[in-house]
Amino acid sequence: MKKSLSHVLLCLLCFMLSAATFTLAGCASDAKERSSKKLTDVTLNEVAHSIFYAPLYIAIEKGYFTEEGINLTLVTGFGADKTMTAVLSDEADIGFMGPESTIYTYNEGAQDCVVNFAQLTQRAGNFLVAREEMPDFTWDDLKGKEVLGGRKGGMPEMVFEFILKKNKIDITRDLTIDQSIDFGSTAAAFSGGKGDFSVEFEPGATALETEGAGHVVASLGIDSGYVPYTAFSAKSSYLKNHPDVVQKFTNALQKGMDYTLSHTPEDIADVISPQFKETDIETLTAIIKRYYEQDTWKENLIFEESSFRLLLDILSEAGELTEEPSYADLVDTSFAENALK
Predict the structure, then answer these.
(1) What is the mean pLDDT of residues 31-45?
(2) Which of 130, 143, 152, 340 has the greatest CB tally within 10 Å of its CB?
């Protein structure tokens, strides 16, 4: 009886080892199959590296681009003009910037025009910072003051001017807008005593508050309403020659957006923190919460015609529109629509 039991145990052990070997072999085979799948290299040039673009970084950190078969290289252009130059010169496959740049290049006669295929943000991402707390702030408080603004012809500055005009403020006579300071240096200039107000992106606005050098008194995103602030675009030839790649890219973005809108600011901060190692998790969470509460991110990536028309109106009022291109010439919604299916 004892010998029989030992024999049974020996057989059972052999079976378990055999099963384990089979399982390990299967895992190794799966891993080999996954690694053998060739990823497509895609270079994305972003206008700035900002918490404002959280859904993009969610897609990167959660591995959604890899899931779609894309090996993404992210480059920061530090300005829409530089990002557009990278796209036009083929240094980048896809650009991420204000869609006004696609209108400028189209009107300048670009033969291979740059087309918007996915919209990420639907509100402005900057804030008006004052030197003192102003709980009863109105835009009339800017009269007679100096404001550190943005680059002429860029979305931050045009949306700021759009708000001022909505509030019956003459941008040439009622205040002074300093447009001479580089995009990334306005917070430091304001902290150093330059200007009465400053238009700041995050983390600049929160940093000024943290050091006691300024206080957020208004959100340009709320006061301007819904505007197509940033979008992904590529040359029409790239969209035509690589539709499968663009679709996979857009699918990954939509996954990033879905995650963003279904999770808390705390969850989002935890995921994208590797992208912003210089920002502590509490500050990162506070900034995301501020963007979350003002409905910054678009539920879907479809760049709608009404948004395009609003963009043309903003450009026209800013004196930057020489000709009105058609919606069909500069927007392709098919990739964003397919990403929702």
Answers:
(1) 73
(2) 130
Domain co-membership, 333 together with 234: yes
Residue 250: inside a domain, yes or no?
yes
3-state secondary structure labels for all residues of the chain: CHHHHHHHHHHHHHHHHHHHHHHHHHHHHHHHHHHHCCCEEEEEEECCCCHHHHHHHHHHHCCHHHHCCEEEEEEECCCHHHHHHHHHCCCCCEEEECCHHHHHHHHCCCCCCEEEEEEEECCCCEEEEECCCCCCCCHHHHCCCEEECCCCCCHHHHHHHHHHHHCCCCCCCCCEEECCCCHHHHHHHHHCCCCCEEEEECCHHHHHHHCCCCEEEEEHHHHHCCCCCEEEEEEHHHHHHCHHHHHHHHHHHHHHHHHHHCCCHHHHHHHHHHHHCCCCHHHHHHHHHHHHHCCCECCCCCCCHHHHHHHHHHHHHCCCCCCCCCHHHHECCHHHHHHCC
Give the domain CATH number at 218: 3.40.190.10
* Predicted pLDDT at 21: 42
pLDDT at residue number 137: 97
Task: Say if residue 22's pLDDT is above 50.
Answer: no
Give residue 292's domain range: 40-123+228-339
Residue that is last in its domain, among 224, 239, 256:
224
Q: Which pLDDT does position 25 carry in this prediction?
A: 41
pTM, whole model, 2 decimals?
0.84
pLDDT tens figures, 46-71: 999 999 999 999 999 999 999 999 99
pLDDT score, position 341: 87
Q: What is the pLDDT of residue 154?
A: 83
Structurally, the chain folds into a number of domains equal to 2
